Amino acid sequence: FLDTVKQDYTNLINQYVQDEKQRLQVFERGGMYLATKKIGKNNPKAAEMEADNAKRTLWNQTVDRAIVTGVAKSEIMQIKKERITDRIAESVWIYGNRPNLLSSIIGTAIAVLELLISKVLLKTLELADKVISKELEAEPENTDFKEQKAVPEESRKQADTPKPAIPPRPQPSPEAVSYKHLCEIYQKLQEQNKAIFALEKQRSDLEIELSDSKGIFKAKRRSELSTEIAGLEERISRMKVRLSQIVKEYGYPNAEAFYKAFHKAETAYGDYQDSLKNWEQQYGEKPQSLHDKLKSKKQDIKERELTRPYSPPNRGRSR
Question: Most exposed residue of 217, 242, 288, 295, measured as fewest CB within 10 angstroms of its CB?
């Protein structure tokens, strides 16, 4: 009950907050994300809390990317527990309350999670969005969700034997209707994630080259490589921020919330397609063969000729 009230009040407060960055957010207890702290105007530890929030936000952005990549929630939770929760408990037990150590703990967890993201992405990059891209490239039948005309019943062979009424054509649920729109968001996330991965690979290649560039004669090249790597780091950082912003632009607080809605819509869309296919097989119009189409066309021409009014040939005017 308290969690529901908290969420309701948070949504109410956010209605009056224009700045997206200042809006409040309720984090799931024991979830994958880390909650950020609200900083007061005259808080003497504002700088320390801002640095702490920046590291927490970076973890949350990495979690978003892990979800987009396809990393299992259980694996993310395991990294969070082993690399953050347990390490914080150990740090407090050994060193006491030292908040400045939190940044390094979260940083290590981010590095471990990013390594897992790279492994998963390497395995699934080619198969990441084949199904979704096909859905978007070709407009499938029965996805416009327009109500079609009812198929007339076949003539009864026996007048005294009534046929069962044709059930109404299946209609999509709101979740099924939203599936195509969610596919477009999904595609944007996948494209952004692949772009980040490409830059990370480029950065990795430059770092390898930098480590191999030794000696006094390669000092200039080392400087160039360091500048290029720094530029790539900045671009990658901005693109990771953008990845998390994509779902927020469509009203989802994070990638986890979006993917819950996406998978729900995907299931609803699949159920709708199955029910529609069954309905078409039982009650829909049967496709005509080429022979039947030609026969029907000849019959139409014959009927038009029989019903056409007679007009005598024009033999010209008599003088």
Answer: 217
